[in-house]
Structures are given as C-alpha cells and as structure tokens.
Amino acid sequence: MVVRRFLPIASAILVLASASGFAVADEPSKLDAPAAFERLKSLVGTWEQREGENVYVITYRLTANGSAIVETYGPGTSFEMLTVYHLDGDQLRATHYCAAGNQPRLVLDQKASSPEALVFAFDGGTNFDPATDMHMHDGRILLHDADSITGEWTGYMDGKPSGTHSFVLSRVKD
Questions:
Q1: Where is 168: in which H helix or E strand?
Q2: Which residues pair with residue 155 across a beta bridge?
Q3: Does the structure show a pLDDT above 50 at 23?
Q4: Confidence at 14, pLDDT banded by 50, 70, 90
C-alpha cells in the first residue's frame, strides 16, 4: 500500500528532475554541423605552442566568401600542411592535405561532439590504403576558451592506431 502511494510521487520527482537537467547530466550536449562550423570560425587567427625555444604555429583563416576554413600547420615551413573544413548539407567535413602526400577525409561526429569538443571521424581519403598506409584517422579540437585550444589527432598504420599527437595552443595577440 505504501509503495502504491509513493510510486506517483517518485514518478513526479523523476519527471521534474529530467526537465531541470539533473537526470541527463551525464549526457554531453550535442552540436550540429552549422554550430560546429561557427565554433571553428571563432578560431580565425594565429595560434602557437611553445616548447622551450621551439614554436609551433597553426593559423586559421576564412576563404571562399566564408564558406570554408583553412587550417595551416607550420605555415611557410617545409612540413606545412592544410586542413580545409566546410559544410556539406547537414554535415561538417574536413580534408587534410598531409605532408605524407595523402588526403584523409573526416566528418564531424555530431553525437560525440559538444560546444567544447569537436570530434572528427575518418571518412575515407585519397592516395593511401587505410588498411596498410600511415594516415591521420580521427581527431578532436578542444575549445577551452577564446585564447586556448587543444588539437588531438590520431594516426593509423596497418589499420590500427599508431599514436596521437596533441597540440596545446594559445592565441597570438595582434
């Protein structure tokens, strides 16, 4: 009898908790492709990672009337590489033009992404065999605040992860 009286009260508490956000605290907030593209646009500028006397630079710039973002690793160096991000319908896509001579394609994993973490998954590529050749396979851009981000990119070799490269970057003030 006590259980029957308590059941409607417990149900009401669960409904209220869900409506207030408590019950979904473990679920990350989702991010659709246009919102993720806008987050990437906020990165336009120059970023660097300093390790002693070594400085690693990445730049972001808009191109094609704001419809694409070009990320340049090591601009002007012999190891310069590009990643171009663009919207394709309801998806955010990226093509990485690697110093290894291949071009992995990535797509935003909208379910795994949030406003603080853009997660990209492998979606094919050109000039390599993903089952055997080295290539960038997936990655994340962690947006800490307006002046601090982390890039984490996982390489694959022989069809399995071969290491993750992390870049902790700070915005260069003009």
A1: strand 160-171
A2: 136, 163
A3: no
A4: very low
Element counts in the chain: helices (H) and strands (E): 2, 10
Is the C-alpha dihedral spanning 31, 33, 38, 40 positive or negative? positive
Using only C-alpha atoms, the chain has a radius of gyration, in whole angstroms, of 21
> Using CA atoms, how far apart are residues 80 and 77, in angstroms rounded to an integer?
5
36: helix, strand or coil: helix
Q: Per the confidence metrics, is the pTM higher than 0.85?
A: no
Question: With 0-12 CB in 10 A as exposed, 13-18 as middle and 19+ as buried, what is 27?
Answer: exposed
C-alpha span between 101 and 155 (Å, rounded): 14
Q: Report the distance separating Cα 137 and Cα 142, nearest Å.
A: 17
Q: Which two tokens stand for residue 42?
A: 């906020």
Instruction: For residue 91, give every residue at least 6 positions away whose Cβ sits within 8 Å of its Cβ, in sequence order, or none.
Output: 33, 107, 108
Alpha helices in the chain (DSSP H): 2-20, 33-41
Q: Tens digits of per-residue pLDDT, 61-101?
A: 999 999 999 999 999 999 999 999 999 999 999 999 999 99
| Percentage with pLDDT > 70 across the chain | 83
